[in-house]
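Key result, reporting period 2: structure in, sequence out.
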């Protein structure tokens, strides 16, 4: 399939009408399968964000990295829907050169950019949990400025990386006729750098942090077994590591093929289509995995379920029983002392002519009056 560099083509042509971006029938058929997955993923993400809207228990600072990760999923879905509309409706030649360049750069770079920042978002989440587990510190309240700088670094540095590679001509944007625009690396050093910083390094760092967490939990659990007790904090820490490990394994199996294929192939092929399909399946499963592994989401789902059941079947806002209150409570006389038997009988309205004795906790006898019938 013939391909050409976008900028070179537009600079050395005097045509006022540029090529259209319409997909070929084979490309459109393969992208239609991705479309169905993206529609399902959009519905799942919408339900998830409705839960976040209505349940305040899941709107916490400690969940900011999870939400940042899911927001990148939303941007990936928006990217696909936008490009699907463009490639299926562009039946005429494009006379606007700027629009043509924007579409190609948007399509070629945004997918890899969003997938790259996702892995660093998960690394930041893992490091925060390490500090929480090992050093017992609340990162989200003690290190707010560092968190803000980390967010900005994760989002900005990949942009500068792409700009530098394009300026030194290590990367070129090419359009494949009847298919999509894609990147092509002209320098082996660019591929090596992208593989190291966009794939290998963050994965190895994540594995290293997970191993540190597991080592700490294992050492503390051995100490607890020696003392014949296991604290709730240790159980919670163990659950955090298990949650992240399960999520990370599923994510890595579905996400990594797309990144690897992006670095070593260019244009449309069966391999790129399968990798892209797995990537969008992972996007559709992300809300399920996060909601299933975090107990806060499970509690909010149960709460929402009870609320809708009560609304549908006409019950009250809650099913709790209203317990009667005492009209004559027995109150303390102050200084930690309780009233005497005579005062109790007066508060209950009993006459003072008869008494009955009852044993107390200290084997003492407490005399109370017996009401006259």
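The corresponding designed sequence is given below.
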């Amino acid at each position: 399939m013939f391909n050409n560099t976008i900028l070179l083509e537009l600079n050395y042509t005097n045509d006022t009408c540029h090529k259209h971006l319409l997909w070929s029938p084979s490309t459109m058929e393969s992208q239609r399968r991705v479309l169905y997955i993206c529609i399902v993923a959009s519905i799942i993400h919408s339900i998830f964000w409705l839960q976040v809207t209505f349940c305040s228990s899941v709107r916490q600072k400690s969940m900011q990295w999870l939400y940042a990760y899911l927001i990148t999923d939303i941007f990936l879905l928006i990217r696909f829907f936008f490009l699907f509309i463009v490639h299926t409706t562009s039946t005429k030649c494009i006379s606007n050169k700027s629009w043509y360049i924007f579409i190609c750069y948007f399509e070629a770079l945004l997918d890899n950019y969003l997938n790259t920042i996702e892995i660093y978002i998960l690394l930041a989440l893992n490091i925060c949990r390490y500090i929480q587990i090992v050093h017992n510190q609340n990162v989200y309240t003690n290190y707010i400025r560092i968190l803000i700088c980390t967010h900005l670094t994760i989002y900005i540095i990949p942009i500068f990386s792409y700009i530098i590679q394009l300026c030194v001509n290590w990367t070129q944007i090419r359009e494949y006729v009847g298919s999509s625009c894609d990147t092509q690396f002209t320098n082996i050093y660019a591929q090596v750098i992208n593989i190291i910083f966009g794939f290998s390094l963050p994965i190895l760092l994540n594995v290293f942090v997970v191993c540190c967490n597991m080592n700490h939990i294992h050492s503390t659990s051995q100490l607890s077994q020696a003392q014949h007790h296991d604290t709730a904090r240790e159980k919670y820490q163990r659950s955090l590591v298990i949650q992240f490990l399960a999520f990370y394994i599923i994510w890595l199996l579905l996400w990594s093929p797309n990144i690897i294929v992006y670095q070593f192939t260019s244009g449309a092929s069966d391999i790129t289509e399968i990798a892209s399909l797995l990537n969008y399946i992972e996007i559709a499963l992300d809300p399920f995995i996060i909601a299933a592994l975090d107990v806060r989401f499970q509690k909010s789902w149960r709460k929402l379920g009870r609320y809708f059941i009560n609304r549908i079947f006409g019950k009250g806002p809650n099913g709790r029983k209203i317990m009667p209150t005492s009209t004559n409570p027995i109150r303390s006389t102050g200084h930690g002392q309780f009233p005497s038997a005579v005062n109790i009988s007066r508060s209950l309205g009993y006459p003072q002519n008869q008494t009955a004795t009852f044993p107390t906790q200290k084997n003492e006898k407490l005399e109370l009056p017996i009401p006259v019938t």
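Confidence is low (pLDDT under 50) at residues 317-322, 327-336, 360-373. The beta strands are 3-5, 171-176, 181-185, 355-359, 365-369. This case is discussed further under Risks and Mitigation.
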